[in-house]
Amino acid sequence: xxxxxxxxxxxxxxxxxxxxxxxxxxxxxxxxxxxxxxxxxxxxxxxxxxxxxxxxxxxxxxxxxxxxxxxxxxxxxxxxxxxxxxxxxxxxxxxxxxxxxxxxxxxxxxxxxxxxxxxxxxxxxxxxxxxxxxxxxxxxxxxxxxxxxxxxxxxxxxxxxxxxxxxxxxxxxxxxxxxxxxxxxxxxxxxxxxxxxxxxxxxxxxxxxxxxxxxxxxxxxxxxxxxxxxxxxxxxxxxxxxxxxxxxxxxxxxxxxxxxxxxxxxxxxxxxxxxxxxxxxxxxxxxxxxxxxxxxxxxxxxxxxxxxxxxxxxxxxxxxxxxxxxxxxxxxxxxxxxxxxxxxxxxxxxxxxxxxxxxxxxxxxxxxxxxxxxxxxxxxxxxxxxxxxxxxxxxxxxxxxxxxxxxxxxxxxxxxxxxxxxxxxxxxxxxxxxxxxxxxxxxxxxxxxxx
Length: 451
Hints:
Layout: E1 5-12, E2 15-22, H1 25-40, H2 44-58, H3 64-77, H4 81-93, H5 97-108, E3 121-124, E4 128-132, H6 141-150, E5 154-158, H7 165-177, H8 179-183, E6 185-188, H9 195-202, E7 207-211, H10 214-221, E8 229-233, E9 237-242, H11 244-250, H12 252-264, E10 274-280, H13 281-301, H14 309-328, E11 333-335, E12 343-347, E13 360-366, H15 369-376, E14 383-389, H16 392-405, E15 409-411, E16 436-439
Parallel strand pairs: 4-5, 4-7, 5-6, 7-8, 9-10, 9-14, 10-13, 12-13, 14-15
Antiparallel strand pairs: 1-2, 3-16, 11-12
């Protein structure tokens, strides 16, 4: 290994991947400072253009770098290559110029405030962002990496152990397009209990972005210093709500198809994936029956991934509970194949939400949409995304109730896993949240001229 680096190894079954971890963090800081000066000299529209070009290349499924990254991701996550490709298709679509500029305009007004004073004001990004990623959703790091680069910050990216490939591969393409951007990112990995590496990386950062469960995020939050900007994406739960009127408008088979898409994307492992759909009682059973066919078709179209022993045991326990309830009440029913590819459960009671995924489509019958809101109220602290199937004034009214409850995104059923780049992630501005502002006031030589 070169001086100032140590090797790390990530393993999944028989497969292993090797990488380098810095040991001389002072040298890393010096390198990032030099890269950041070059980055800040780039106009923001050039940054957008470079990211757009890299995303356009990666949008081609036959790109050699993408195929290699997808194959490696399939080995380590257990997801099928088709599922990973669909995840990347959705995420890469958010990195096109139109989406990036729309997000900048929504949060900053004029993107070019990042280049200097515009109308008497300018926005300054952090010097270095430490981004700690977790999970196994392919492409997850892209949003935060791109947000940091858009505000002209260098980045230390701790890649997720369960999906370490995308970040490095995408950065190589970005280097081919615009080396200044890729040079401003250090992608590496350290174990969760390696506090020395975490503290060393924190020492180089003035902004921190943390992904992970509540415990992991709490451990990072405890080490963040008062002067550091801190952004957290902890444990989240998503769900759907469907009214009788929505089913009557679209038909139970089409509604089931949309729910199946939400429950099958990412093998239901993303925070955006629904853990339950609360469906008004008049059509709940019809939707559930059609949903079994829709989940079967979704599994044939995009095969589910392998399930490890622990998750398989948890899924079998969930099925046993559902089957016991189905045997003891007329309001419950279970549909599933002989294997663990998918499961559909109909019930009139909302059992505790686990967030464990693996294509379990739970339909809970509710008398009305107000009851649906009350069912998820105990989870308000963790709610993120809702697929709302409602019509007219009721749709707006329930969306308002969900917003007040804590939901940060409301979309149509079937679109839950396709959040746009303009979404205020978890309800807060994620580009504007990274910058600080400077205004010119009462200085006639510096203030913009008026006509």
